[in-house]
Amino acid sequence: MTSNAFQIRFTDLVAQQKRILPAINNRIADVLSHGQYIMGPEVFELEENLGAFSGSKHVITCSSGTDALLMALMAMGVGPGDAVFTTPFSFVATAEVIALSGATPIFVDVKPDTFNMDPVCLEEAIISLISGGNHPLPKIKKIRELSPKGILPVDLFGLPADYDAINMIADKYNLAVLADAAQSFGATYRGKKACKSPQVAATSFFPSKPLGCYGDGGALFTDDDPLAERIKSLRVHGKGADKYDNIRIGVNGRLDTIQAAVLLEKLKVFEEENQKRNLVASQYQNSLGASFVTQCVAQDCTSAWAQFALVHSKRASIIDVLKNNGIPTAIYYPKPLHCQKAFSYLGYLPDDFPVSKKLSENIFNLPIHPYLKREHQENICDLIHSALN
Ligand SMILES: *Cc1c(COP(=O)(O)O)cnc(C)c1O
Fold first, then answer.
1. Of 103, 215, 286, 380, which residue is 20 to 30 A from 95 by alpha carbon distance?
2. Which residue owns the Cα nearest ligand 1 atom 6?
3. pTM, to two decimals
4. Mutation test residue for ligand 1: of 69, 91, 100, the one with most atoms within 8 Å of CB
């Protein structure tokens, strides 16, 4: 199967664990000895450290990235009769939470160079909903009764969306901005941590994300005091003065103390890992950038490089060559959300979002992690070049 004596992993959590295992074991042992498995001291220590890292006034950890998004929508008062604009080129959770809140997702295509929400399409979609126009809208009975409520841009593969343009449109039409920053923890937008740019940002600590725990986890970042208070209440069943005083309908959305303990140790090595991931990405760019469409990072932004993607019409044969040489690849995402059965009730056609559709047909993702060795990466690039010839 493989001609390589070594194993190249798509995401290498083994190498990272080898490095910090004693520290993680100590942290977990602390939790086992104090026994505060729910909302223990590590949860609050983590929130403080994440606040210092991000510069966000409020950090609210929670049970997953999906729950973070859902709680943010609930805290913003998004519900039935509301429209939330998002992109169809993302993981299902992005649009799923909009539907779960009772609101209607309205898809907006992405840009071919960043794979992130196209602000021009966003404004066209808003105008089409408010006063009519040519942008594709859901074919549902009550479409004319929906009121635009929010924008949910995605920082795809770790690259921040175009927040200056999106925030300007949000201000113009009085919409809230919730970022799906599940993949972009550690990225920067115009000199600040990316999660500072939208009104509120949701990240995920799923094991393979840039900052991952050993289970499910997530966090919300915001500078908005009342919004943070509502999210903290929602996280514990809509608690008021305490959890037996319930002032709103909430969820069980807490992060486990053991996961917070793991994250505290992983956060210590995060910035170094982030830089190494950026180095791997720039080496891919240098070697492959002339032959492939790759994600374009604006000069004053950085990506967290959760994924490194190539776009090429010969995707299948390149993946085959890599596979035959023991190199794992992935396809994020093979089917855009407007083509998923779960969203068929919106009545979209495949060609409604041509950029997303074309990306889903031609994109594939290469191994990327801080522990990818230079010579292994050169091997991957050589194989890809050979597959093109
Ligand atoms: C991973 C991911 C999520 C969901 O995060 P979970 O922690 O798995 O719930 C949401 N959106 C995007 C873009 C993701 O990549």
1. 215
2. 65
3. 0.97
4. 91
